[in-house]
Design goal:
heterodimer; A: about 190 residues; alpha+beta; H-NOX domain; 2 domains; four-stranded antiparallel β-sheet; 6 helices; 4 strands; B: about 650 residues; Beta-Lactamase; Heat Shock Protein 90; 5 domains
């Protein structure tokens, strides 16, 4: 994964837990550096080691850590770094999710070795949709759950995950995530 | 261009319109209509848009002549900018504009206009570039931050290096001065025949050499403290014993100058405290020595009092005192060399004293009146020793039974310790079996029942800790007590965690040994009078005690074994050091420290412990410090042990 992800994780830990906790996480992970370059591609093992170490040091289950990270990513880090791009991506959670693949496709042309996940959205009714998430990587569905919850906050909509249905795939991971949405003003 | 081609162009490009030869607009795409309300059918191209590129378009003819150019258009209301080109539908009559938002202009000039991803055709790379550029900017920020940190680190390193260089320069100068004294004195001595002059020159050479040694010792201590490698030991020690030893070391110099040196303890202070006795000793010897140096007649007092939660050590003298200007620099290195004293001085002692006091989390302050004397206050946060309470309990309990019954397995790889320990235990009436390592002990305990196992820690084949854990896995294991030369406040918890039921410090002391044995063994039938040593030990006393404990014949055997084994291990230690095999150095110094301690060679034992500690930290500088005199020191100590004669041996001569 790109250093962008590691930078975001560090920012989240620094913001909520401080420098010492981040240093403890890096030591626990066994990753030999404390500094990551946004545009450099790192092994997935590095990313997973950091997330695993964060989970251990913060005494949070891994799924919960990934959810928190997903929410931080979409609510705090990405708007700070790529605010205008996110603004272009959509005016509602559904529109945003529908355009995510397009956004990722565009990024792919500049970032080699970029292996983005894919999101398809099936709208069931005015308040319900199924997000069909698939990735070459495994174990990141909780990260997506965090992103969905964060998207809800971004657009003033309460998003609740009502079911997660794993789909068997030969490689990576695929989940059908059913969400219920209630607009704050509704 | 047919209608179907125009439709295809509408699908390829998000912003399209047609321009006729009157510059009138038609077929305006819906999204353009939304974002640019002035773009209506029939409106004039130049009234709706300012043509930024190609510059200066003012007629249809100019427009049609630029069909190979990129068009950058800005709406007159400045809410939209487009990037595209014009294509001929009908040469000289109709042209079609195809394009998309000009993102860079929009970001800079109309950020409030909400563009969507769908406003940008798939073939357009502006959005890709925006992500790329944003990421690159982010990375540049990160690199600048890393660069700033590196620059700061470089500056810090340069500053630290400068401090080191300055100190090195001072130190070199300070070493050269006494070295010159040694060289000059020795050179003059060679040609001098007058005994009085020779004596003077010898004295100069000696004093200069002492000075040189002080500077070298300072440099070693300084670098250790600076590098954070000066460890603090923590052990119980007698306050009175320590003060007595300081007076004993310094009173010779005091008497020579008609200075009365004394000590006192405030009533109510605990007898035993816990802290780093060696470093306190170094501090007090330095401060008391200084006081004597600057007092030509009168007195020097060393007092200890309670001060808030600290132990306050007060050193006062009736000497020449220190002027206010000098007081501000008294702890600086090389301050006050030979000031106010006829004796030579490096001016380093008080700097090290301050560093040591701060290392012990204490503080040192000074008050002085010129011509009336000086008082140093050293406040240290020592704790009251836990053993002080134990002492009281023991006193209340009265004398412990000193003849015991039971089977004990004694485990040690040092044959002298093994033989010595066996004899001491047998004197108590205990049945003793021995083993030379943990594995041998484990095998024996698996077959034979014991009431107690006394286990050395550092041993070959299987160490004591592993053996203890293995023994505890056996059905009905005997209690295992650790025998250790290590000291430290957390030792009891550490050994308990491993599975030991207690620990005894080596060399074994009668009182603590007997106390431990009485916990695990039953009283025996007969009572044997034991020698208890409550006073300061010395080699002769230790050896005399051993003779009384073992009997003269046994003592002679143990002594011979001790001398032979120590000699052998000493050679092994020195050859390991020559090979720089620090692991063997550590093991041999550990074993030797223990056995020579049993024979009262306290100084040698202490040196070996320092070597053991330094080798476990791979600190070659520190090892050299203690290793350089070890052979001479050991030979002297062994000769003294060898020369010690029992009354029987004396009679036989």
């Amino acid at each position: 994964m790109y250093g962008l992800i590691h930078t975001a994780l560090r920012e989240m830990v620094l913001e909520h837990h401080g420098e010492q906790t981040w240093e403890a996480i890096v030591i626990e992970s066994g990753v030999p550096t404390n500094s990551f370059l946004t545009m450099r591609s790192y092994d997935d093992e590095t990313t997973l080691a950091l997330i695993g170490a964060a989970s251990k040091i913060l005494a949070l289950p891994l799924d919960r850590s990934l959810e928190a990270f997903g929410e931080y990513w979409i609510s705090s880090f990405a708007p700070k770094e790529y605010g205008r791009l996110l603004d272009h991506t959509g005016d509602s959670p559904i529109e945003f999710l529908q355009n995510l693949d397009d956004l990722h496709d565009r990024i792919s042309t500049s970032f080699t070795n970029f292996m983005p996940p894919s999101f398809r959205v099936d709208i069931m009714d005015a308040n319900t949709a199924v997000v069909r998430y698939s990735s070459n990587r495994e174990g990141l569905t909780p990260f997506v759950i965090g992103i969905l919850e964060g998207l809800g906050k971004r657009f003033g909509t309460s998003i609740t995950v009502s079911s997660i249905e794993p789909v068997e795939v030969p490689r990576g991971e695929q989940s059908n995530i059913t969400i219920s949405m209630v607009k704050a003003s509704d | 261009m047919t209608e179907s081609v125009l439709e295809l162009l509408d699908r390829l490009f998000t912003f399209t319109f047609t321009i006729d030869d009157t510059l009138s607009l038609s077929r305006i795409s819906a999204r353009l209509g939304n974002l640019c309300p002035d773009a209506l059918c029939g409106s004039n191209f130049l009234e709706v848009f300012h043509c930024h590129r190609p510059a200066g378009i003012s007629s249809f003819k100019e427009l049609s002549a630029s069909d190979q150019s990129m068009f950058l258009l800005i709406s007159r209301d400045k809410n939209l900018a487009l990037k595209g080109q014009v294509l001929p539908i009908k040469e000289g009559e109709l042209y079609q504009f195809v394009g998309m938002p000009w993102l860079a202009w929009m970001n800079d000039n109309a950020p409030e206009v909400q563009l969507h991803l769908r406003d940008f055709p798939k073939l357009d790379s502006q959005m890709d570039q925006e992500f790329y550029l944003t990421s690159q900017q982010s990375m540049v920020r990160e690199l600048e931050s890393v660069n700033a940190k590196l620059t700061q680190a470089e500056e810090d390193a340069k500053e630290a290096s400068k401090v080191q260089s300055d100190l090195f320069a001072i130190m070199s100068h300070e070493m050269r001065t006494p070295l010159n004294g040694v060289i000059s004195a020795l050179s003059l001595l060679r040609d001098e025949n007058d005994p009085i002059e020779r004596s003077k020159l010898t004295k100069i050479a000696n004093e200069s050499a002492d000075n040189l040694l002080s500077v070298i010792n300072y440099a070693l201590d300084y670098s250790k403290i600076d590098a954070g490698r000066m460890d603090l030991d923590s052990d119980d020690f007698s306050l009175q014993g320590l003060l007595e030893s300081i007076i004993a070391v310094t009173e010779g110099r005091a008497k020579a100058k008609a200075v009365d040196v004394s000590y006192s303890l405030e009533p109510g202070l605990p007898k035993t405290v816990n802290g780093d006795a060696e470093k306190l000793r170094q501090v007090l010897i330095n401060v008391v020595g200084n006081a004597i140096k600057f007092t030509d007649a009168g007195k020097v007092e060393l007092r200890v009092a309670n001060y808030n939660d600290y132990f306050r050590f007060i050193v006062s003298d009736t000497g020449c005192g220190i002027g206010q200007d000098d007081l501000d620099h008294i702890f600086d290195p090389f301050w006050g060399r030979s000031k106010g004293s006829s004796e030579s001085s490096t001016g380093l002692g008080l700097n090290i004293v301050k560093r040591l006091v701060e290392l012990m989390s204490g503080q040192i302050t000074v008050e002085s009146t010129e011509g009336a004397g000086t008082t140093f206050y050293i406040d240290l946060p020592f704790e009251v020793a836990a053993s002080a309470e134990v002492e009281k309990v023991d006193t209340a309990k009265g004398a412990l039974p000193s003849y015991l019954s039971g089977r004990v397995l004694l485990v040690d790889d040092n044959q002298t310790n093994l033989m010595l320990g066996k004899m001491i235990l047998e004197k108590y009436g205990i049945s003793v079996r021995t083993a030379s390592n943990g594995k041998e002990a484990l095998d024996i305990v698996s077959d034979v029942t014991f009431d107690l196992v006394l286990m050395d820690i550092a041993m070959p084949v299987m160490d004591g800790s592993t053996a203890c854990q293995e023994i505890n896995r056996l059905p009905s294991p005997p209690p295992v007590i650790a025998l250790t030369a290590n000291v430290g406040p957390k030792l009891a918890q550490e050994y308990e965690k491993i599975g030991f039921k207690g620990y005894l410090k080596k060399p074994l002391e009668n009182d603590s040994l007997l106390t431990e044995l009485n916990i695990w063994l039953k009283p025996g039938d007969t009572s044997v009078e034991l020698i208890t040593s409550g006073k300061e030990v010395n080699r002769a006393q230790v050896l005399t005690d051993l003779v009384r404990q073992l009997g003269e014949e046994n003592f002679a055997r143990v002594k011979a074994l001790f001398l032979e084994e120590t000699d052998r291990r000493l050679i092994a230690l020195l050859s390991a050091w020559v090979r720089r095999d620090l692991e063997v150095v550590r093991k041999e110094s550990h074993t030797l420290a223990s056995s020579v301690g049993s024979f009262g060679c306290d100084d040698l034992s202490w040196r070996l412990k320092q070597i053991e500690r330094a080798s476990s930290q791979s600190d070659a500088t520190e090892i050299i410090k203690y290793m350089k005199d070890i052979e001479t020191n050991a030979r002297t100590a062994l000769e003294a042990v060898s020369a010690f004669k029992t009354s029987e041996e004396g009679q036989n001569e």
